[in-house]
Amino acid sequence: MAAEKKDLKAELEKISKAPIKILGISGSLRKSSFHTGLIRYLESQKLEGVEFSVASIGDLPLFNQDLENPKDEAKDPESVQELRGKIRGADALFISSPEYNYGISSPLKNALDWCSRGANGSALKGKCTTIVGGGGAGAIRAQIAFRQSAVFLELKMIQRPEVGVRFFEPEKESGKPPVDFSNGDLVSDKWKQRLVAQINTLRDFTRKDKLGNAAFDLLCATASDDKEKK
Questions:
Q1: Contact present, 128 and 156 (Cβ < 8 Å)
Q2: What is the largest CA-CA distance in the chain?
Q3: d(C-alpha 192, C-alpha 42), whole Å
């Protein structure tokens, strides 16, 4: 029993010290997208305890079962294979999406459709996730719609904080919009801080999830071994 406790402690310490791998995905394909600007800001920061990377969804074909090989994912479109690989290699997902017709963007929905299925199963199942966005109403309805899909996809969503940027309203402090319309860059200090707070919450949520899963698996394995010895 002492050896098992030592193994458990070592595994938990390893998880506690390792950076959390978070994959950023923008649901907008526009060159000067504000939503890609949110992801780009996080990519430019030195985030404590986070290994941040970005995946593009612009090269994905429209989902079509005729393009999908149900027995061998290596025969699926290369862009689909690449995105699935990045998602499977990540601990968590940070999604930024505009609101289209009270829902998420069509490119993001297409990416979810591709990555929720495949010969090796869903790449999304069990991923810790958060979604942010902005627009005239802050893209809050898109975030609600995404949460509905997240139930079926078995994503583990953080509940708070929320980020819904009103891109077109001048801020009281500066009198200027929170983004640069020419390139999509986020320029608001307030929303920069909110984004960092959001990803830090996702980091901590994901780490707790990984710690809980590791403890559960190791304790169950120990209990099974003890039962067999008896």
A1: yes
A2: 73
A3: 8
| pLDDT one-digit tens code per residue, 199-222 | 999 999 999 999 999 888 877 876
User: Residue 14 in 3-state DSSP?
Assistant: helix
Whole-number CA gyration radius for the chain:
20
The first and second tokens of residue 131, run together, are: 């979604």
Q: What are the start-end ranges of the E strands in 56-191?
A: 92-96, 128-134, 156-157, 164-165
Whether 39 and 25 have beta carbons less than 8 Å apart is answered as: yes
> Is-above-0.70 flag for pTM?
yes
Q: In degrees rounded to 5, what are phi and psi of residue 98?
A: -75, 170
Distance, CA of 120 to CA of 163 (rounded, Å): 33
Is the separation of the CB atoms in 95 and 38 below 8 Å? no
Q: CA-CA distance, 203 to 135, in Å (whole number)?
A: 26
pLDDT tens digit sequence for 176-197 = 999 999 999 999 999 999 999 9
- DSSP string spanning 23-52? EEEES---TT-HHHHHHHHHHHS--TTEEE
Question: Is there a contact between 105 and 28 (Cβ–Cβ < 8 Å)?
Answer: yes
| CA pair distance 136, 123, nearest whole angstrom | 32
For residue 54, give the DSSP letter.
E
Q: Which residues lie below 8 Å from residue 31, measured CB to CB, with a gap of 6+?
A: 184
Classify residue 152 by its DSSP letter: H
Angle 2-17/189-229 helices, nearest 10 degrees?
160
Q: Measured in whole angstroms, how far is the alpha carbon of residue 181 from the centre of its chain?
A: 25
